[in-house]
Fold this sequence. Notes:
Shape: rod-shaped
Distance between the termini: 191 Å
Number of helices: 5
Radius of gyration: 64 Å
Amino acid sequence: MIDLAEDTRSNPLFRLGAQPIALTAAALFLLIAGVTSIAIWRAYTGSAPETDRVAASRQLQARTAQASEQLVEKTKGLEATQQESIDQLQVVQDQLQTVKRLLASQQADTKRLSEQVATLNESIDGLRQSFASARATEAETPTVTRRKPARHRVHASARKRSRG
């Protein structure tokens, strides 16, 4: 059989586990060295990422506020334009109603005048027919003319001559 106790002594990792204080001290030393190197690097470059992030976030907030103000202004402009469009549309609708009323009035006048013209045409046709029938009646009846005796004719022509 193989003895396990001998294997643990020969393995260096198990030996470190046996000394936890040394392992903790080494981890602490590495952590302090890392923090110190970061602090030295920030001091040497003169800028801290947190400061840059704060400045960037403030610029972003300023840009956001400016964009928000621009959106508010544009929205107000759109509202004003929309209100003007609504007002113009109402004016056009009013004008359309007026035109419709005028058109209806003109159509009624046209209809009334057409009826009057038709009535006048009927009256004219009636007068023509009456005039035509009156002429036809005159043509059918012989005209009776009385002749004056010859002696009256002679005297009448003599009188005319004496006056003239």
